Amino acid sequence: MKNPQFSIIMPSFNVAETLQRAIDSVLHQSNGDFELIVVNDASTDNSLAIAQMMLERSNDTRIRIIDLPANIGLSGVRNVGLDAATGTFVTFLDADDEFIPNFLEEHLKNLDDEVDISIGGHIVIRTDGSEMPRHSEFVGELSGVDAMKAAMVDKIFPFTWDKVYRRSIFEGVRYPLGSTRFEDMTVNIILYPRARKVRSIQTPLHRYYISTGSLTWGRIPTEDDTGLALADLEELLPKKYRTGNYGRFYASMRVLITMIVAQSAIMKLKNQPAARTTVDDCRRSLRLPLILKAATVKPKFAAAAVLLKVAPNTFAKIYLRHSANSYGLN
N or C: which end of the chain has fewer CB within 10 A? Predict the structure, then answer.
């Protein structure tokens, strides 16, 4: 049997409420040339039983279930999926989200012989059920190196789930074990220079559900998260892309990561006063030389970093207003 065009990796950990919806969205793809690899990360609810039920009910040989004996975390699960994947292309679907039916079909149109990463738009489903279409600021085609620079200044979203990758560019690259935040961003940064071309479109192809219980929205990132992400870059991103002319873009990305950590902590201040320590740590780490270097390529980031550093209460008010308007989070 020939290898499929697509390998879809679906991490599964205590997602019984949404897993069936996610799997259904894969089985209803207009392009059916795929394998779906569901990796159960030692769930303590009935997620595994639901996946097995879906397999038995559909009798669909494209579904593969890997049941891990012990919990290894999201990065480890994605790595297990990558090791098992056989498709020409690979993509990831979180079990609390879903593909729009033409996800694979539209990405395949992007992935000609020269394009190694395809990026699509998505629909944000807010906590109140309302919807907001969204796409990366950059739309069009870039060389892999230019895509890396665009991602470092936030012109390309840092997610894994809005992208399809040629599987061969993952050779020698895996997600950093133990990391629970920023692993998407850092692995993308590592992969972009390996790509010949990257193509980004506006078309919404994925439904992204805001959930206060998810890793993204449900916990406060720590300095350890940031350290793991940056250590991965130090190891796998060639030094030339972290220094010299590229150093300004790298500084911008470091400022962005620091502000994301601070913003996540700000969301928790009302109910978790200990989050103030994380905000203060972020303010201290935003040193003037780093901010000035980032300002040369992303003045907006530099201005926000200065505001966080000198007027954190004002920064918090602005961010909380933004999160309420954009995501329905209060």
Answer: N
Question: pLDDT tens-digit profile of 138-170?
Answer: 999 999 999 999 999 999 999 999 999 999 999
Q: Write out the residue range of the structural domain in which residue 34 sits.
A: 6-215
Domain for residue 225, yes or no? no
Verdict on whether the full-model pTM lies above 0.90: yes
Amino acid found at 202: Q
What single string gives the DSSP state of each residue in 5-34?
Answer: SEEEEEEESS-TTTHHHHHHHHHT-S---E
Instruction: Give residue 318's pLDDT.
Output: 93
So what's the pLDDT on residue 221?
66
CA-angle at 252, arms to 233 and 218, nearest 5°: 70
Does residue 224 fall inside a structural domain? Answer: no
Q: Is 242 helix (H, G, I), strand (E, B) or coil?
A: coil
What stretches in the chain show pLDDT beneath 70? Answer: 1, 212-223, 329-330
- Domain finish residue from 178, 198, 215: 215
Q: Both 182 and 262 in a single domain?
A: no
Q: What is the DSSP string of 41-107?
A: ---SSSHHHHHHHHHHHHT-TTEEEEE-SS--HHHHHHHHHHHH--SSEEEE--TTSEE-TTHHHHH
Please state the domain count of the chain: 2
At 52, which CATH number?
3.90.550.10
Burial of 203 (0-12, 13-18, 19+ CB in 10 A): middle
In whole angstroms, what is the distance from residue 63 CA to residue 46 CA?
18
Dist CA 259 CA 184 (whole Å): 16
| pLDDT at residue 212, rounded to an integer | 64
Amino acid, single-letter form, for residue 143: S
Q: pLDDT digit string (tens) for 219-256?
A: 666 667 777 778 888 888 999 999 999 999 999 999 99
